[in-house]
Amino acid sequence: MLKKMTLLFGLMASILFSLVAQAESYPSDPYALVDTAAKQTFARLKADQSQIKQNPDHLRVIIREELLPYIDTRFAAYKVLGNQIKETTPAQRDAFVQVFTEYMVSSYADALAHFDKQVVKVEPGKPATGSITAVSVSVKESGKPDLFLEFKLRKNNKTGEWKAFDMVAEGISLLSAKQSELGGLIRQNGIDAVIAQLQAHNAKPLALKS
């Protein structure tokens, strides 16, 4: 019995230490967050090129593991629903968040599919004073014009954590594009039909564009 209790307390201590370590390692400000997320994601894209070429769906794995932990997918999904959220049930909202999260994974994977040899630089910015801020990122590649990205972030009032909810590439907001694309469909066909449509879309394999 004593041996079992020792093992149990050891397991509990291990779990607690792991949770504390995760909390301490989470970036404390929006610029550190974007820097961490961008470096991890682009390094993984570069390292896994052979796997991506063999199986483009591996891009989704990279986005889920390296970028998704820093994205507020529920906030983004609710922004897409807009005023239509009043017409939904809690179960419908949860289902939409789930399929929209996978939809965003595919969208980010598609947007970042051809990044492998670039150098990423998070531009210095002013300290965030409100709950919403933006962080600029420049992507440099020899012989090509610089590409400019902007990540919009929101601070969670309860946890104090910053998370991204939108990426703007060359002036085009990914979230705004999805709002225009899906908002009208939700109004016309209802949220259940759009959830089914997104599920079908998410089930399709990714294909690398030439």
Automatic annotation (TrEMBL):
Record-linked InterPro entries: MlaC/ttg2D, Tgt2/MlaC_sf
Keyword terms, alphabetized: Signal
Pfam families associated with the record: MlaC
Gene3D superfamilies: Tgt2/MlaC
Secretion signal, residue range per the UniProt entry: 1-23
Protein's name according to its UniProt entry: Toluene tolerance protein Ttg2D
Organism: Aeromonas molluscorum 848
